[in-house]
């Protein structure tokens, strides 16, 4: 306290921090990166454990016997699907009714803002079919959901068959205290979005759907099942949901506990558990798994139908059957018993899952990194911005540079961001008329054109209304930009740590390096490399490397364009926040630093 209360000592401390600002910033940056890389080292992680007392034991006897019959139902479903060329609604309704469920349908339609060339659709119409098994021993105020998407071709037929088999088996049990809803949704995420909006009486995306005629209780948890082969070697757990949301960790713990009990190989990010954490290959395996989760979470898109449940505070995950040609094989009966055990434990819940973590990273299913462990890595990066703010304040003069000299680049940068957000979807028809491109290509190329044009528009905008810029002007603008970036990254990391951390890795060095007095060409090249667009491009190639599916530059560029179009679609279809965040906030903030570089 004496050090801070003594004016002379305080002045000496401030002077020391100012002199060592750059070395401290460099140390903090590399310390933040090293901290993050250390998160995958097993001694620095926590072993997973069940926090919810109602699910604290796997002592239930799973008796599901009808795996072969479920596969036969899947083949029958596939035959009817091919016969009608889509969802066999009538057959599903009759089959669910034969199994003793209350069966209802929901029609929906959605016109996409531009065609989805990945799935070749524009006008989407479909029907969801769901059956409700009423709880015989409770007031029917709570429910669980088991869903299986009706996918095109031969995809996911086995999942629908197993869902029907479980419905028939669950119907014969008397211990259910919650309604169980068996849902087969058409058109994957679009159908699931329609059903969830209808169930909760909301319409946040402008989709047309018919009201649900039957409802269960308040949904406590949900699982989405994906099986596309009769031969299953392992079960993969998918957790990443819309805008980087994750389900309560106890749901993942429950899956892992029953896989261990029944003897099923379980994976996350498609990677098996390894015990050689003290070897280089073991650590490399863990860090790859961790980084894949970070990349998926940062994308903001739902990586399964479960991802849309999370916005309604429903804990959900996707369980995916994988045939990776290992010698180990799992039959449908065993998978049915896995799901039976999980639903019997979820049936015991007296309240929503809340006792375990909602913010975590998983280097494996047996270990996790809590928010208290990974946030310091982000904090070390943001400390650099606070140091730069103190440095700028110390060097500011008393004289004012004029409000307009700072306000003008702020306004024009954000107007450019607004154009990046609004113009691609609004000008697609004009672009198609004048250029030989499809609607999707027009949207993506318009976005790239607006983004590139922004590099030319904002710089020197400080002179638009106020004449020549001053030395004091760019210092004030940089102070504002650094504060803006610190607040933006902090808020982003609270919502989606992975996205905030990736942006901090690139934008913090840009904020530190840029001044009008550095070599223009070299600094401009560095700023472009550290820009949001290039960060996304590098992320596409890096993600392919993590998946062990490297691509050439041409293939990577096509993937990059596809990611841009998919990100815009995800925003308009499901409410993903990544595209508006980048367009309306991150890109304008980066333009402020670009403007500072060309200050005259």
TrEMBL record:
Keyword terms of this UniProt record: Disulfide bond, Endoplasmic reticulum, Glycoprotein, GPI-anchor biosynthesis, Membrane, Transmembrane, Transmembrane helix
Record function comment: Component of the glycosylphosphatidylinositol-anchor (GPI-anchor) transamidase (GPI-T) complex that catalyzes the formation of the linkage between a proprotein and a GPI-anchor and participates in GPI anchored protein biosynthesis. Binds GPI-anchor.
Pathway where this protein functions: Glycolipid biosynthesis; glycosylphosphatidylinositol-anchor biosynthesis
Pfam families membership: Gaa1
Annotated protein name in UniProt: GPI-anchor transamidase component GPAA1
Gene3D superfamilies: Zn peptidases
Coiled coil: none
Places the protein is found: Endoplasmic reticulum membrane
Organism the protein comes from: Takifugu rubripes (Japanese pufferfish)
Main subcellular location: endoplasmic reticulum
GO BP, sorted A to Z: attachment of GPI anchor to protein; GPI anchor biosynthetic process
Assembly with partners or alone: Heteropentamer. Part of the GPI-anchor transamidase complex, consisting of PIGK, PIGT, PIGS, PIGU and GAA1. Interacts with PIGK.
A GO cellular-component term linked to this record: GPI-anchor transamidase complex
């Amino acid at each position: 306290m004496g050090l801070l209360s003594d004016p002379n000592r305080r002045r000496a401390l401030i002077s020391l921090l100012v002199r060592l600002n750059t070395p401290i910033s460099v140390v903090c940056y590399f310390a933040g990166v090293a901290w993050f890389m250390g998160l995958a080292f097993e001694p620095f992680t926590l072993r997973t454990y069940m926090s919810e007392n109602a699910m604290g034991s796997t002592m239930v006897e799973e008796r599901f016997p009808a795996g072969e019959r479920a596969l036969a139902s899947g083949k029958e479903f596939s035959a009817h699907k091919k016969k009608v060329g889509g969802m066999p609604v009538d057959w599903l309704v009759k089959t669910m009714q034969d199994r003793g469920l209350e069966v209802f349908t929901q029609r929906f339609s959605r016109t996409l803002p531009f065609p989805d060339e990945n799935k070749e659709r524009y006008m989407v119409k479909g029907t969801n079919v769901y059956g409700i098994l009423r709880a015989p021993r409770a007031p029917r105020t709570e429910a669980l959901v088991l869903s299986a998407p009706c996918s095109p071709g031969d995809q996911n037929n086995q999942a629908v068959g197993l869902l029907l088999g479980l419905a028939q088996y669950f119907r014969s049990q008397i211990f259910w205290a919650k309604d169980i809803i068996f849902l087969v949704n058409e058109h994957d995420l679009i159908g699931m979005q329609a059903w969830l909006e209808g169930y909760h009486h909301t319409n946040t995306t402008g989709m047309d759907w018919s009201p649900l005629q039957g409802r269960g209780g308040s949904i406590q948890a949900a699982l989405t099942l994906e099986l596309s082969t009769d031969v299953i070697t392992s079960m993969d757990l998918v957790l990443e949901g819309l805008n980087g949301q994750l389900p309560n960790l106890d749901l993942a713990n429950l899956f892992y506990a029953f896989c261990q009990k029944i003897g099923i190989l379980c994976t996350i990010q498609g990677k098996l558990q390894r015990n050689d954490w003290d070897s280089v290959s073991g650590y490399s395996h863990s860090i790859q798994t961790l980084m894949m989760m970070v990349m998926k979470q940062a994308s903001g898109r739902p990586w399964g139908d479960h991802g849309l449940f999370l916005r309604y505070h429903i804990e959900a995950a996707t369980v995916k059957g994988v045939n990776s040609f290992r010698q180990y094989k799992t039959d449908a009966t065993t998978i049915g018993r896995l799901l039976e055990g999980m639903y019997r434990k979820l049936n015991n819940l007296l309240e929503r899952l809340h006792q375990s973590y909602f913010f975590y990273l998983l280097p494996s299913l047996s270990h996790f990194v809590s928010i208290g462990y990974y946030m310091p890595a982000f904090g070390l990066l943001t400390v650099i911005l606070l140091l730069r703010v103190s440095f700028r304040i110390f060097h500011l003069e008393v004289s004012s540079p004029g409000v307009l000299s700072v306000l003008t680049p702020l306004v024009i940068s954000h107007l450019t961001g607004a154009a990046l957000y609004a113009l691609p979807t609004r000008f697609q028809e004009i672009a198609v008329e004048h250029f030989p491109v499809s609607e999707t290509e027009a949207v993506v190329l318009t976005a790239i054109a607006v983004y590139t044009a922004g590099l030319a528009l904002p710089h020197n905008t400080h002179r638009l209304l106020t004449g020549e810029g001053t030395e004091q002007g760019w210092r004030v603008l940089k102070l504002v930009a650094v504060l803006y970036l610190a607040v933006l990254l902090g808020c982003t990391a609270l919502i989606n740590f992975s996205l905030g951390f990736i942006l901090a890795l690139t934008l913090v060095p840009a904020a530190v390096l840029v001044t009008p007095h550095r070599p223009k060409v070299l600094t401009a090249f560095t700023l472009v490399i550290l820009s949001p667009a290039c960060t996304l491009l590098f992320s596409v190639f890096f993600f392919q490397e993590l998946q062990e599916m490297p691509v050439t530059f041409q293939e990577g560029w096509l993937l990059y364009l596809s990611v841009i179009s998919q990100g815009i679609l995800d925003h308009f279809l499901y409410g993903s926040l990544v595209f508006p965040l980048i367009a309306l906030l991150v890109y304008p903030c980066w333009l402020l630093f670009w403007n500072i570089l060309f200050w005259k």
